[in-house]
Amino acid sequence: MRHTLLAWFAFLLGLLAVPFQALLGIPALALGFYALRGINETGKEIPGRLPAMAAMVFGGFGILFTLLGFFWVTLATLWESSARLNCANHLRALGHSTSLYFDANGELFPRPSLDQKGLAVNQCLSWLADPIFLDARSRKVAAGVSTQIDYASAWNSANNAAVARQRIGHYLCPAVTKDRAVNGESCTAYLGISGLGQDSAIQETVDAQSGYFNHNRVFRLKDFTRGMGNILQAMESNHQNGPWMAAGEPTLRFIPMQASKCIGPGLPFGGCHTGGAYGLLADGSVRFLPGGIDPAVLRSLATIQEPPIPPGLEQK
Questions:
Q1: CA proximity to 123, closest of 145, 148, 163, 151
Q2: Would you say the C-alpha torsion 241, 295, 218, 207 has a positive or negative sign?
Q3: For residues 50 and 72, what is the distance between their CA atoms, to the nearest angstrom?
Q4: If residue 297 lies in a helix (H) or strand (E), which one and from where to where?
Q5: Phi and psi for 253 in degrees, rounded to 5?
């Protein structure tokens, strides 16, 4: 009788082990085994054998589900850590390529669209199509891609259709959910920063709204009056990603003048990683910007010049 009651108790623990998993699964498995062994040792046909066996099965499943749960959580955590590390490294590679561009072009900073006479901005090749940015990080990864581009034609021309569909790994965050555009072109998750407001990319003068990239002006070092470690060159995004070859909106984005929040799922930047987004600064460093960053701070990081000092506050 004692073993029968023990078997039924183990059976109840086994049933509860499914939701409570290992917390009750281990004692259910142990008690079920003990009860079954006791019943078998009596050599008699007494009730309790079936619930004892069922207790062991349910308890075993509870333990298995727990182990699988821990494995899944651990795997997801490791994957997220790996994705964050690779994303930051991709941005660092863009920063390194910028240094090479700066040295190769007489201390000039890159423009967001390549200089292609007779083409509108939305037809031009983007800054990411420049051979220095395309191939400098790893010639093994992107070997020969730049040699396949027709730099005299529009990015969406028949001459460039095949290369536009080529996936460039270091232009994509591993956590991005959209890596193809409507027509099958490979996308980028890394967008240049044009400054504050929609017109910041086409301003012909440098002012407090100017950002790192500008279609109509080639910047020199003297144009950057704010510290290079406090200027955003590019940020990651998982929102409305476009082809890496296309100049304009697909590879360039501005910071809204009045938006209270710009980083997070469904917002202009971020959405790849929990809690914020990685940004590349003009000095080549990479910083993780939290989603709750002060909008004024983000707007400040998006500009290349210090705001003018109000009258009466100048140093005397």
A1: 151
A2: positive
A3: 33
A4: helix 295-301
A5: -145, 145
pTM, full prediction: 0.76
Residue 288: CB partners within 8 Å, gap ≥ 6?
Answer: 88, 273, 276, 277, 278, 279
Spell out the SS3 assignment of 68-127.
HHHHHHHHHHHHHHHHHHHHHHHHHHHHHHHHHHHHHCCCECCCCECCCCCCCHHHCEEH
Q: Cα–Cα distance between 180 and 165 in angstroms, integer? A: 8
The Cα–Cα gap between 38 and 152 comes to 86
- β pairing state of 232-236 and 276-281: antiparallel
Express each pLDDT in 86-128 by its tens digit.
Answer: 999 999 999 999 988 888 888 788 999 998 988 999 999 999 9
Query: How far apart (Å, rounded) are the C-alpha atoms in residues 278 and 255?
Result: 15
Cα separations (Å) of 82 from 75, 174, 175, 187, 189? 10, 9, 10, 21, 16
Which residues make Cβ contacts (< 8 Å) with residue 90, sequence separation at least 6? Answer: 137, 170, 171, 172, 173, 190
Phi, psi of 51 (to 5 degrees): -65, -30
Q: Are 192 and 242 in contact (CB under 8 A)?
A: no
Q: What pLDDT, in 10s, does the model give residues 207-231?
A: 889 999 999 888 888 889 989 999 9
Around 179, how many Cα atoms within 13 Å sit in the side-chain half-sphere? 14
Asked if 158 and 140 count as a contact pair (C-beta separation under 8 A), the reply is no
Each domain of the chain, given as residue ranges in start order, spans: 2-73, 105-301
What is the strand order of the sheet 252-255 is part of?
252-255, 190-196, 232-236, 276-281, 286-290
Distance of CA 120 to the CA centre of its chain: 30
The DSSP H or E segment spanning 287 is: strand 286-290
What sections of 106-236 are H helices per DSSP?
131-135, 139-142, 161-164
Which residue in 298, 278, 299, 302 sits closest to 92, CA to CA?
278
**Residue whose tokens read 């290349």:** 304
Tokens 């290369």 belong to 163
